[in-house]
Automatic annotation (TrEMBL):
Residues 26-266 form the Xylose isomerase-like TIM barrel domain. The keyword Isomerase applies. It comes from Asaia lannensis NBRC 102526. PANTHER family: HYDROXYPYRUVATE ISOMERASE (PTHR12110). This is Sugar phosphate isomerase/epimerase. GO terms for molecular function: isomerase activity. The keyword Isomerase applies. Keywords: Isomerase.
Length: 286
């Protein structure tokens, strides 16, 4: 990574889907990755404590956690359990179990799909549950990060798809432990995206990066620097907003003929790190 790159470099475990949790830890550490974004689906419920401790012992900060159930309402990625109460209970169980093993981490959340297309109800109920969960997260020493998703996910995974919609939800919760997960792949197409990032300011808790082409499936992302996202502009806006945390690589690459999962994933991580550094350098003011 370039010496001037202002963020620590992390990897979300969805990026290395074919590897086990143990492989993720060993290989990220060997590649000098600074932080891991833990995906609970990769943890063995019987050994989760040991696995999380092993990541920290390998020198990896746990910057964020993707719980097994991370939406209040149903989602295509995790349709069960049904019902908001059951889903929030599952999220809360993950929070109580994993937060003590990941102090300071952000737990990523979203609304889920609006029941019967009723986005107002979905947002009101999500805010109501978050007002209950945010104080618990704070008591456990972690935060919640709300992630607006790309419009390709509307009525499938989300009822919010812009930074400003997410900020409105965060404001409705009104707790300092509730902030924003900023995934460039999801939000780069909104108008004046860089200005919206600057408005988010200190409410940015998590930053995720990959690159874009017209998707061939719902899980089709690229190595940073090989697609259409103006990553340098967004990285600089994020820096201007005051964020100084981890920039996390999050790539999905399923159900496509040229899947990155079929490549050497060590190279995917190296190339992604270099792509982010180059994007930052290319847009440095002169």
């Amino acid at each position: 990574m370039s010496a001037s790159f202002p963020f620590r470099f992390g990897v979300n475990e969805f990026t290395t889907q074919p590897w086990s949790f143990e492989e993720d830890v060993a290989r990220y550490a060997a590649l000098d990755v600074d932080a891991i974004e833990v995906c609970e689906v990769k943890l063995d419920p019987q050994r989760a404590t040991q696995q999380m401790l092993a990541a920290r012992e390998a020198g990896l900060a746990i910057s964020a956690v993707q719980p097994r159930i991370r939406t209040v309402f149903g989602s295509a990625m995790a349709p069960q359990p049904e019902g908001a109460e059951a889903r929030v209970a599952a999220f809360e169980a993950s929070l109580r179990k994993l937060a003590p093993l990941a102090p300071g981490a952000s737990f990523v959340m979203n609304t889920g799909s609006a029941p019967d297309g009723n986005m107002e109800h979905c947002l009101d109920e999500t805010a109501r549950y978050l007002r209950r969960l945010a104080p618990l997260a704070a008591d456990l020493g972690v935060t919640l990060a709300i992630e607006p998703l790309n419009p390709t996910s509307i009525n499938v995974e989300t009822a919010i798809w812009t930074i400003d919609q997410a900020l409105d939800l965060i404001d409705a919760v009104g707790h300092e432990a509730c902030g924003l997960c900023l995934d460039y792949w999801n939000i780069w197409q909104q108008p004046s995206c860089d200005e919206a990032i600057r408005r988010a300011g200190s409410r940015i808790f998590v930053v995720q990066a990959s690159d874009w082409r017209t998707p061939r499936s719902g899980m089709d992302r690229l190595v940073p620097g090989t697609g259409s996202i103006p990553l340098g502009v967004l990285l600089h806006a994020t820096f201007d907003a005051g964020y100084r945390g981890v920039c996390t690589l999050e790539i999905f690459s399923s159900n496509i003929a040229d899947s990155l999962y079929d490549r050497d994933l060590n190279d995917v991580i190296r190339d992604s790190r270099n792509g982010l550094a180059q994007a930052w350098e290319d847009t440095m003011p002169h």
